[in-house]
Amino acid sequence: MRNPDTTRALWQIHFCVLLWGFTAILGKLITLPALPLVWWRMLLVVATLALLPKVWRGLHAMPVRTRWAYAGIGVLVALHWLTFYGAIKLANASVAATCIAFATPMTALIEPLLTRQRFRPGDLALGVLSLPGIWLVVGGVPTGMHAGVVAGVVSALLVALFGSLNKRMVNAGGPLTVTALELGAGALALTLLAPLMPILAPAFAGPLLVIPAPMDALWLVVLALACTLLPFALSLVALRHLSAFTAQLSINLEPVYAIALAAVIFGEQQELTVRFYLGVAIILGVVFAQGLLAGRRAPAHPEQVGVSETHHVAD
Asked: Which of 26, 181, 236, 304 is the 20 to 30 A CA-CA neighbour of 274?
């Protein structure tokens, strides 16, 4: 008979993944351009975390060099969110969620370079096998959405980069402190980048110092608190009772939930072809195969999986 703590943890982690899946839906509902959307989301999360004395104590105890390292990773997090929500605006939530799934095989290729581990032939093979999926996805969306696919793939690459870098520093700070530092640095980077955005990426640009409309403000609060901080805290509790294998497979369901929610809420399946969904099936097959491989290795640090929404508090 399954341990009640394990059963409860499974329900908790799937609830977290469902909430993370809603981030793509909220990105579609919020009418703000990608830049102010991400800026407000980061600002709200950081402002909430700043109320916790534990965060300030952790920041004070952290060496200056480590703070700068996390701040640099935070810039990558900000750029990831910017391109992710840019992909939603340029295409739709289903396309953006599918592209983010590509981060798993990308991580398998990038992580050994950044963490000085050896390449695993299985990971390399999975990375190659995912390429036909991307090709089918690109061919299965209207031409007008191709820019969104490019933004989504760039976003996935950024996930692989900052996720691997975070893994190198997994014991260098408490999860809440790291989240506050990374997102604070990311918000500052976007503030400095804002004047250049109309030139660099006009499709993502928008004014920062404008109060969002009431519905946008409501969805932003939901995005920051219910889809970022709540699953972050809940996942840390749940992961104490789950194996790395179970956690990996559960978290890999995020794009599945996002695509299903987009179909139900927005009817996005009418905008996309069978070719697109065949590509989705290939990519998700690679993602779950990667989860099976990861399950045979040493368990991950729960704190690292928990910062999914830095790692998905980065999506």
From this structure: 26
